[in-house]
Design brief:
Elements lengths: L12 E6 L7 H13 L5 E6 L24 H12 L2 E5 L9 H13 L7 H5 L3 E8 L7 H13 L3 E9 L10 H7 L6
Parallel strand pairs: 1-2, 1-3, 3-4, 4-5
Helix pairs in contact: 1-6
């Protein structure tokens, strides 16, 4: 990711991975507000809705046959290439049962295969990038710790930077736009 691009002056590339099951949900609204207000100058952005790029169930092949994973195709190829092209991964993920939505967790499960994919150099290419989280929740902020911990530990495992989590309160569509604390935090969220 960051260390694989053409120098420190190259523009950053943000991949927004929308894991919501609802179009234009609170997490997405908050993420779009933050992107519009605080992305670094010249930064590129790409938005992918994970439900529009469904992945098959992950199958752990490490200890079967030759332990090799098949070359990704279809949506998996699209997500792999988009992931490797980004300097920053932003998980736009509402809090579902104290953790990531299924589509985001499945996407991360597929990283296990990508780490072992010949020629992908996944670990090396991810090193130096940044993982961020944007989530809406309808409960106390501390209940988001499992979601935040998953993303932070994933970043740590791959030698990536943890950019932090932007949390907003909202249940019904548009509720997050009334969360003054979240709106203020969004204005500077992506600034380093």
């Amino acid at each position: 990711m960051a260390d694989q691009h053409a120098g420190a002056d190259a523009p950053r590339s943000f991949l927004f991975l929308n894991a919501s099951s609802r179009a234009d949900g609170n997490s997405e609204q908050l993420a779009r507000l933050a992107a519009g207000a605080s992305l670094p100058a010249g930064a590129q952005q790409r938005w992918l809705r994970l439900r529009e790029h469904p992945l098959p169930p992950f199958e752990d092949l490490r200890h079967t046959g030759d332990g090799r994973y098949p070359e990704p195709v279809g949506h998996e190829r699209t997500l792999l290439e988009a992931t490797l092209a980004a300097t920053d991964l932003v998980f736009v993920a509402p809090l579902y049962w104290y953790s990531l939505p299924t589509s985001a967790k499945l996407y991360l499960d597929h990283w296990s295969a990508w780490l072992r994919l010949p020629g992908a150099d996944f670990r090396a290419r991810m090193r130096g990038g940044t993982i961020w989280g944007v989530t809406a929740l309808a409960t106390e902020v501390d209940k988001a710790e499992p979601l935040i911990g998953t993303l932070r530990l994933t970043a740590e495992y791959l030698g990536m930077r943890w950019g932090g989590a932007l949390l907003g309160n909202g249940t019904r569509p548009g509720d997050v736009l009334r969360d003054e604390r979240a709106l203020i935090a969004a204005k500077s969220f992506f600034t380093d």
